Amino acid sequence: YANKVGESFPVLVPVSVVRLSYAVATEYVVADSMDKGYLKNRLWIKKTKYRQVGIATADTLIWQGLAAVAIPEFTINRICWATQHALANMKFLPHPVKIWGVVAAGLGSIPFIIHPIDRGTDWLLDNTVRKYYGSS
C-alpha cells in the first residue's frame, strides 16, 4: 500500500517522496512476480513446463502492475486532485483543513477502491491476455 498512501499526500510532501512510494510498490510487484515464477519452477520437476513458469511470472507482473500500482495510483491521484479543487473554492475553510482534507480523501478512498480495482483487473486480464495463454 506504499504507493496508495504516498499518492494521498501530494499536498504535504515533495513529489520525490510520492515517487519513492511508486518505487517501493514497483519493487513489491517485481518481487511477487519472481516469487510466483519461482514457486511454479519448484513444481517443474514434477509436472510443469518452462512455459508455465513464464506465464505465472508474466501474469502476476501484469496483474500486480495494474491492480496494485497503475490503477490505484491514478484513481487516488484524481480523487486528491478533485478534492483539492473542490476545497479550494471553500474560502471559509482554513488552509490546514483544506490540506488535510485532501489527505483524508486519498487515504479514505483506499478501502473502497481496492476490491473494484482487483475485480476489474481480473475481468480485464480474463478477457484479454489470459485468453491467449490460459490462466495458471
From TrEMBL:
InterPro entries: Mitochondrial_18_kDa_protein. Pfam families: MTP18. GO terms for biological process: mitochondrial fission. One of its GO terms (cellular component) is mitochondrion. Belongs to the MTFP1 family. This is Mitochondrial fission process protein 1. It comes from Candidula unifasciata. The lineage of its organism: Eukaryota, Metazoa, Spiralia, Lophotrochozoa, Mollusca.
